[in-house]
Amino acid sequence: MRSLRSKLTVTMLCVIFAVIMFITLLSVIFIRSTASRKSDQLLLMLCENGQYSLNYYFDSVESSVNNITTLVESDLNGLDDEQFAAHMERSRKFFESAISQTDGILTYYYRIDPSISSTVKGFWYTNLDGKGFKEHTVTDITQYDVNDTSKLVWFTVPKFEGRSIWLPPYITDNLDVRVISYDAPIYYNGQFIGVVGIELDYSAMAKEVDSIKFYDNGYAFLSGDDGRLFYHPYIDVVNLHYEDKKMPYSYTNGSNTAKYVYNGVVKKAVWLPLSNGMHLNITVPVDETEGEWRGLIINILICAVIAMIVAGFFLVATLGFITRPLEQLIDAAEQVDKGNFDVNLQYNKDDEIGRLTKSFMKLAGNMKAHINALNEQIFIDSLTHVRNKGAFVIAIDELQEQINNGSIDPNFAIGTFDCDGLKRINDQYGHDKGDIYIEKACRTISDVFKRSPVYRVGGDEFSIILKHEDFHNLNFLLERFEIVVNDINASAEEPWEQVWLSKGFAVYDPSEDNLVQKILQRADKLMYENKRERKMGRES
């Protein structure tokens, strides 16, 4: 690090870097703590909203069943068949009144234990199509062991528990529909009589829970008061074994938040109890809850890097204000050394570097003019001002190189011209008239073949390389050439003002012409044949 400019630049950048990193570190700590707290508050708020909605839904069902239970039990006056039959009719009306005030009910029922009555079985109403409740044939309870709580759960579980209870999802008998139900046992004088209950469409409850969506992969699910899954949007709880329904975290940790790992993904969960003893759980991948503040931190780091870069550029620009024009001069000198004299230096202030820049630009311009003049002397014919034989040799060499490396465009031809009668013009009228004769011939060739380079390769010889449009219009141009020559000769007043040219054109053949010289030889041969034909025509 030899220059003062480099030392100052590095020192200032180190100071700026230290300050920016310190501020960034404080920002990260503050943002992370704030964002984590806000994320927990957001999840809890969503959970509270879901809790309110589900409590309202479940409470309405519980209230209906509990009211019906009270009415049914108070209506029982005896256990004989006649009293039961009358009791059943009154119970239907109890249900009809309560059901009308409760949404989402799929079925409702009042079933009598077969040990109490063999003739009065109860009733079962269903609303499968949404058009109203219709009485359905009841399930034959006598076909089941009423003490086996794994079967006929809507009847056996409340009987076994002796209290009103929410049952986890199951497939209802005979209907093959997945439901959840709230059931209550009916007692008369302390004796179990039967069960009343309401079955809810599982999909209706699932829709209520599924509506709680947030972030990209956040969702809600329900668990029972025993800490086992009740409903999950991505798990088939009905077909899970009892042990597999266990929650991945505990409700007894004194908090309503937890972090856990599920399928290799770290997640954050919050939960709140529902009025029916269940828990509403809301879970989301930690990466998503932290995504916003992580993105903010990344943006801060990006801004810090940008600030460093901007500061670096500013320092370099400021400290390099004087050296930059010198660097531009060095670059310009290197360009001139490579033969590029079209350099452009913008520095024009009236100081030492400005005066040096102006002198250098003037020097480069003079060198360009001298070199152009030399090129004209070397490659431009002084009489006709078209390209000379040296330029033609270079062009032929370039074509040969393209043939050798396979980059040649096969659509080209070479033409040769020779002035007829130049010796006679020189001998009879003088060489100055012969020069006019040559210039006239060259100008005629150039006028007709405007898009092709013309070369003077000898005293009275010219060559032309046709490409692109002139190549594709070769026949038309040859006809045009004859018309122009005839017009010139018809209007010429002196012999040296006429144009007499023999010509020959050879088209490149990729299958035969591995050397450009072969094309030239064919063109020369055709030109001399043309010369003989023209001479024989004049003599005849």
Q: Judging by the overall fold, what is the CATH architecture of the domain at 387-539?
A: 2-Layer Sandwich
Q: What's the overall geometry? A: elongated
Q: What's the overall average pLDDT, rounded?
A: 84
CATH fold description of the domain at 387-539: Alpha-Beta Plaits
The helix-strand sequence is HHEEEHEEEHEEEEEHHHHEHEHHEEHHEH
Strand order of the largest sheet: 3-2-1-6-5-4
Number of strands: 16
CATH superfamily of the domain at 387-539: Reverse transcriptase/Diguanylate cyclase domain
Helix content: 40-55%
Name of the CATH class of the domain at 387-539: Alpha Beta
* Unreliable residue runs: none
The separation of the N and C termini measures 91 Å
Q: Helix count?
A: 14
Structural class: alpha+beta
Taken as a percent bin, the fraction of beta residues is: 15-25%
Biggest β-sheet description: 6 strands, antiparallel
Can you describe what's shown?
The chain is of the alpha+beta class and 540 residues long. Among the domains are: 144 residues, PAS domain (Beta-Lactamase), CATH 3.30.450; 153 residues, Alpha-Beta Plaits (2-Layer Sandwich). Helices cover 51% and strands 19% of the residues. It contains 14 helices and 16 strands. The strands form three sheets. A six-stranded antiparallel sheet has the order 3-2-1-6-5-4, with helices on both faces. Helix 1 runs antiparallel to helix 2. The model has no long low-confidence stretch (mean pLDDT 84).
Show the helix and strand layout:
Blueprint: H1 4-75, H2 81-99, E1 105-112, E2 122-126, E3 134-135, H3 153-161, E4 165-171, E5 178-188, E6 191-201, H4 202-210, E7 219-223, E8 229-231, E9 257-262, E10 265-273, E11 279-285, H5 286-289, H6 291-319, H7 323-337, H8 352-379, E12 387-388, H9 389-405, E13 412-419, H10 422-429, H11 431-448, E14 454-456, E15 461-467, H12 468-472, H13 474-491, E16 501-507, H14 516-539
Helix pairs in contact: 1-2, 1-6, 7-8, 10-11
